[in-house]
Amino acid sequence: MSAVITPPAAAGPAGATAAAPAERRSALAVRLMRDPVALVAAVVLALVVLAALFAPWVAPYDPYYTDLPKAMQGPSAEHWLGTDNTGRDMLSRVIYGTRNTLMMGAAGVLIGGALGTLLGILAAFYKRLDPWIMRIVDILLAFPAILIGLAVAAILGSGLSAVIFALVVSTVPDVARVARGAAVGVMGMEFMEAGRAVGLSNRALIWRYLTLNCISTIAVFLTLRFGQVILVGSALGFLGMGAQPPEAELGMMAAQGRDFLFMAPHIATIPSLAIFVIVLAANLLGDAVRDVLDPRLQQ
Amino acid sequence: MKILETAAQAAMLAATLFAVAVPAQAQTLNMAKALDSPHYDSQRTTWSPTSDVTHMIQDTLVALDWDGKTAIPLLAKSWTMSPDGKLYTFKLRDDVQFCSGKKFTAADVIYSFNRQRDPATRAPYAWRAGKIKELRAPDPYTVEYELTEPYSDLLVQLTMFNNSIHNKDSVDALGKDYGVKGIDGTGPWCWVSWQPRTELLLKRHDAYRWGPAMYKNPGPVKFERLSIKIIPEDSSRLAAMMSGRFDITTHFPTQFIDQAKKSPALNVEEAKPNFQLMYFGFKATRPLVSDKRVREAMNIAINRAELVKSVMLGQAEPAYTYIDPNALDFAPSTKGIIKEDVARANRLLDEAGWSKKGPDGIRIKDGERLAPVVFIPQVTYFPRMTEAIQGYMRKIGVDWKITALESSIMPGRLTGQDFDLWTVTVPYLSAGELMNFYFDSAQMPVPNRMNWKDPATDAAILKGRTALTPAERTAGNQLAQEIVMKEHLWIPVMNARMYQTTTKKIKGARAHMLFQYTFYKGLDTSL
Do B387 and A246 touch (CB under 8 A)? Predict the structure, then answer.
């Protein structure tokens, strides 16, 4: 029965055929690449992600190997970004630190995004659940992410998992509101009524009609959110709630360098610059993705 | 780099000019501290930030001279010890009064020590007063202090802040707020107000004339008020001192001490002697570190001179013994026990059965990695130092799992058994104190966190504690040091230096070593 209805999400807003998604994706990519800022941001992010993924092969030294006589050396041919306060190679630690920082951001955005989407869609579809879910979301929104992070770290102990948990918790309410807003709009569409009329199950309606039609809105929001999540994660790392020694993480590395700002400024500034570059690239790319995906901006 | 150094020097010069240009606040001494206290009742805490303030407001029977070893008269003008070492008779000054105006007598001494040994007070440092049998006052200015067993360290321990003399009226009147809304004392400063984590305000005790002879000025102090502000952040404290906003601090960030010494605006004085050992202790009953060979391997795998030079920027002395060689009853025979030798460390671990290594280079035995859990305070130099040592450990195939704890929750976590090593810096007065406090089996599980229970150690400590002559005391304490050092129960790392930094306009502020703070009574400090 349900097979006779073409899922509107697959058909797309312009009513194209089911074979169109691949073409549409490639058209989106082309439009993105035409934007020079987006192109640079994408290239930078791609390089950062590749370096992080292949850190064991890219990093010139063991990021945990300490060499105290070489502590706090400035950039040189031997150590391109210098050494930290225990003589570890800064470049290697920045590469490994980027890995942890990106992992934190990705986990925060993906897990938080999935849970937030689920809550938002359920709130929009089941009117009885709506007030309950949204009040919980309101309560969560009342707590800044940093505060949640500190509370989680105090309860669970410091570590990357505590930071990821905090990032997820802080992402869920924002995404839930966006998802609910998008879903409420879709709920009023005629194809939803049609779906009900032909006897589609709630599960099919929620997934094929509601969720898939909200995905692009949520994806744009999450892309924009990625940089912010990295920033919050790094701030928690800076406060000592994140990765524990000898693990590298950019926020933690910046904090470690703070004590030596006069003597060896590179220890604090290099990881700070790395955070800046990643967040800037993520935000610029997020803006470009929004520009491409938002039909209102297209008009 | 050179440009930055020049910029830093220029900033300091500017700060100097600013400090000179801004007139001093008349008659108020401004002190910056890094840490505040939960309260200022000296009997109910081990917290060193309580100690300096209570030393200002309250007095002890005897004072600790600048040498860090000698007890000299303060509230007690003289004393005698019975031949069996169990009875001390203190003759008290008759010209002393509390800030409240109440006259000081032997009843106050008896009240204070009885309050401390009352289980309801839960005084963690009550042991420092010895095993008291009875306190008597044959007359208002004589105290008979009777012990159940001789206590060779008594006089030096009576200089500690927990043995300060309290006013019963003040304790009764304030009840649970004693130490929070006020304390009364016979010290050179009097309590005015306290905003926790912000400011403690004291005023001059005008009647004070009984300062210890170590000061040129017997009292009163030369400032009308003392404002103690809490500035937790290192760089903020640094900037505040450089700008002349504060006159004095014990907490000038160590990494900038060299710049402070070069600054024309500041005086830096090191407290000497100063006994403060930073160590890592092994919980010897935990499987990973129960083998003496494993403990010794970790003890000899680090390069202390390198650590002090790189991590502390030279502002500490490497420690190869538990007791500072200048401290009372140091055992010279312990000097050669810790011989740094990475090759030997590897051999010891192999012999202990940790010969296999995993793909990450960490040793494995029976499927378990040699990865002990290390608890550290998340303040000052502890994270930096521990991380550097963690690097040495990786080189011998040991993976230290560091857990950094906020300083207020660390004491609570250290009462448990779920860690293999921990680190703190311990201030102490003598070898006897350190041996009694940490290594006596009666002190398990805290502060004997090693869970070290050894009849030979206990016997040596008892011999030193109950000795009637200095020679016997020294022999007992030295034997105890040899035993525990050969067991490698601690990794001594460094003897931390302690500095008192003042602006140039402050005179006569000599740095004292007592319990991690330098101000003590501050009687000679002036403009």
Answer: yes
| Contact flag A262-B309 (C-beta cutoff 8 Å) | no
Under an 8 A CB cutoff, do B390 and A245 touch? Answer: yes
Partner B contacted by A56 (CB < 8 A): no
B interface residues, A as partner, C-beta within 8 Å: 1, 4-5, 8, 234-235, 253, 255-256, 259, 303, 306-307, 309-311, 313, 378, 383-384, 386-388, 390-392, 394, 401-404, 406
What does the block give as tokens for B481? Answer: 């040091």
pLDDT tens across the length of chain B (527 residues): 455 455 545 555 554 444 444 443 459 999 999 888 889 999 999 888 899 999 999 999 999 999 998 999 999 999 999 999 999 999 999 999 999 999 999 999 999 999 999 999 999 899 999 999 999 999 999 999 999 999 999 999 999 999 999 999 999 999 999 999 999 999 999 999 999 989 999 999 999 999 999 999 999 999 999 999 999 888 889 889 989 999 999 999 888 898 899 999 999 999 999 999 999 999 999 999 999 999 999 999 999 999 999 999 899 999 999 999 999 999 999 999 999 999 999 999 999 999 999 999 999 999 999 999 999 987 788 989 999 999 999 999 999 999 888 766 777 788 889 999 999 999 999 999 999 999 999 999 889 999 999 999 999 999 999 999 999 999 999 999 999 999 999 999 999 899 999 999 999 999 999 998 999 999 999 99
Q: At what angle do helices A160-187 and A212-238 cross, to 10 degrees?
A: 150
Contacts of A154 in chain B (CB under 8 A): 406
Token pair of B143 as six digits? 């105290």
In whole angstroms, how far apart are CA A112 and each of A4, A89, A216, A275, B298?
Answer: 34, 34, 16, 21, 43
Residue B286: Cβ within 10 Å count: 17
Provide the residue type at A182 as one letter.
A
Contacts of B384 in chain A (CB under 8 A): 85-86, 256, 259
Contact of A86 with chain B, judged by CB distance below 8 Å, is answered with yes
Q: Mutate which of B387, B394, B399, B408 to disrupt the A interface (most A C-beta within 10 Å)? A: B387
Buried b (16+ CB within 10 A) or exposed e, B392-425: bbbebbbbbbbbbbeeeebeeebeeeebbbbbbb
